[in-house]
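User: Working on a comparison across species. This one is ABC transporter permease from Blautia hominis. Can you predict its structure so I can line it up against the others?
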Amino acid sequence: MLVRKMLRDIGKNKVQFAAVFLMMFFGCFLYSGITGEWGGMKKHFDDYIQSQNLADAWGFDTVFSQEELSALRQDSGVDEAEGRMAVPMGLKGGDDIVLDCYFAETNNISKLYIREGIPFDSSRKGVWLDASFAEENHIRVGDELHLTYQKMEITGRVLGLADSPEYIYGVRDGDMMPDHSIYGFVWASPKILPDENLFSVNQIAVKTREKESRKQIREILAKPDLTVIQAKDHPTVSMVQDEIKQHKTIGSAFSSAFLLIAVMIVMTTMHRMLKNQRTQIGILKALGFGRTKLLFHYLSHSGIICFCGAFTGCVLGYRLMPEIIYPFMKTVYVLPHWSGYLPSVYLLLPVFCTLFCVAVSFVICRKYLKENASECLYGEENVKRTAHLPKICRHLPFSSRWNLRDVERNRLRSFMTLCGILGCTALLFCAFSLYDTFRNLSDWTFTKQQDYECKITDLPDEEGQKELLLRTDGEYLMEGMAVIQNGKKEKEVGLTVPESTRYIKLADSLDTFTRIDEGIALSKKTADSLGVKKGDSITWKPSGDGEWMESKIEAIIRTPLSQGIVIMRKAFEKNGGTYAPAAIIGVEPQKGFGGYEKECSISHQGELTKGIDSMMEGMIMMIALLVLGAVILGGVMLYNLGVLSYLERYREFATMKVLGFGDRKIQNVMIEQNVWLSAAGILLGLPAGYGLLVYMLSTIPDSMDVPIYIRGISWLFSAAGTLVLSWLISLAVSRKIPHINMGEALKAKE
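Assistant: Here's the predicted structure for ABC transporter permease from Blautia hominis:
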C-alpha cells in the first residue's frame, strides 16, 4: 500500500520531483563527465611518459664533452644520461616550416612512440619524423626528406613516423597553439650528416633519483650557471598538468551548483508534501503504521528520485562528456590514446548524493512524524505567522504590500528563487565575459602590445642580419631565461630584452602603457608569485651567465605570452649583460625577404593571431556549456518554484477572485513578485559572475596572463537574458490562475 501511495505522491508533486531529478542528473552528469575526461587524460598521460621514459631534466650548453657525459652516468644520483645534438632546421620547399632536429646515437630516454615504420636505430641512415607533421603534409614512410640549415642540405629517407613524449604540447616559441602543418620534430642518426665530425652534443637528457635535479646536474658538471629545465617546468608536462587542474576545478564548481540546488528543492518539496499530508499521516498512525515505517516511506520519495537522477547522470556523463571534449583536446595535445577513465571511488557518486539528500529529508521528516495520531488528526496545524510591514509601506499599492507579506512569510521559497536568479545571471555573465576577454586578447596582444608584423629567428650571418634590419625597418630582440633569487630558492622565468618600446610596448593595463629606463619590468604573474611590487629590488641573472644583477622594479606589466623580466638593451649591457639577439622584429617588407625565407624562420602576425583564434574554439565550447547551464538551472529552478508558489497560494488566489479581483490583476500580482526577486538576484548575480570569471581565469597556466575585458553590452545581455527568462516562466505559471476552482479551494482544509 505504501508503495502505491509513494507513486501517487510523486505523481501529484511531479513538477518538484522532476526538478530534483534534473538538477541531480545535470550535477552528476557534469561531475562524472568532466572527471572522466580529465581522469582519462591524466591516466594516459602518466602511462605514456612512464612507458616512454620521459627525462627528469634537460641540460643545454654550447657543447658537452664525453667526459661530462661519463661523469653524469657514473654518478650515484643519476640513473641514465644521453647526449644529443639539437638543431632547428627547415624543409626544402616549405618556407615557413620549422623542424627541431635531434641527432643522437641512442634513444633510451624520452623514447619515440613509433606509429608506423621501424624503431629508432642510429645505425640506419634515415630519419624518424613527427607523425602529426607527416599527416598534415602528406608524408609517408619511404619518402625522401630534404632538411636545410642555413646553406647546408641533408637528405634522408623517412624510416618511421613517431610521437615524442617531449612534444605532447609542441609549439614554436611565441605561439600559443600547436600548428602541426609548419612545426614538428625529426630524429636522425649522426651518420646522416655530411661529415660525422659535425656531430657535437649540445643537449643532455637525464633520469635522476632526486626531485631537485637542476642543482644536482650543475654540481656534477661543475657548471653552476648551466641552463637546466626540469620535467615539471617543461611545457609538455606543465601544460598538461595545468589543463587537468583547470578541468578538475571547473567540473567541481559546476557540479556543486547543480547539486546544491537539488538539495534545496528536496527541502521545499518534502516540507510542502508533509505539511499537506498531516491528516494522512494521522490516519496511517491510527491504522497501526509506526513512526519508523512512515519515516522510511517518506524518505523513499526523495531517495528513489535522487538515485535515479544521479545514477543516470553519472553513467551518461562518463560516456558522453569525454567524447564531446576530446576532439578539441586532440588539436592541442598529442597522446597515443584518448579515452575517459573514472576511478572506482567515483562510481559511488550516486550513492553519496542520494545519502546526502536522504539525510536532509530525514531531518525534515522527523519534525512532522514525531506527533502521535490524535495530534496529527485534531491538533491545529502551524499557521503562517503574520508579517508586519514597516509604516512606510502603508502608502504602497495593495499588490506590493501583499507581495512583501508573502515574501516575509515564505522566506525559504523566496531565498531559493533569489539563488536561482543569481546562479542564472552569474553563469550568463561569465559566459559573455569569457567571450569578450578572449576575443580582445588577440587584438590587444598583436596590435597594441606587440606592434611588429613579423618575427625572424634562426638569424643569418652579420651581413644578412643588417640587410634584414633594413628591409623590415626592424630591431633586435633577445629572448631567453633568467633566474631570480627568491630567498634561499631560485625561480626560473622568461627574459625579454628589446632595443626599444617601438614594437614591444609595456602595458600597465589594457589601456595604459609605460616605459622603463635603468630598471626592469616584471610581469604581474611573476610579481604576484614572488610577492614583490613596483619600487622593490630583486636579484637576478640570465640563465647560463655568472653575473648576478640587482635591479629596481620600475613597472609591473601585463603580458599574455611570456611571464618574467623585461629589460631594455642599454640597461642590460650597462649591468654587465652580454646581448645575444635571438630574433629581428619589424614590419613586413614590401619587396619580400630577399631569399632569407629558406635560411631563417619567419613568423607572421597572421600566424601568431591564429593560435589565439584556435584557442577560441575551445572557449566557444566552454561558453556554450555555461549558457546551457544557465538556462537549465534558471529555467528548472524558476518553474519549479513558480509552481510551488502557485500551489501554496492557491487558496489565497481563490479568495481574491471571490472578492472581485480579475484574473489579469491576480496574474500581475504574481508576476510582480517574481520581477522583484529577479531584480535582486540580477544585482547579486553580476558581481558573482565576475567572481566566477576571475576564478576560471585563475586556472589558466602560469605561463599565460589573460587580462579581463568586458563590453558594456555583456552586462546588459546578462541582466536582460535572466529577466526575460524569469518573466516568461512567470507568465507560463500565471496562466493557471483562470483555472482555479474557487469552491474547491475555499472548502479544502489547508
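For your comparison, note: Residues 263 and 357 are 6 Å apart (CA to CA).

User: Helpful, thanks.
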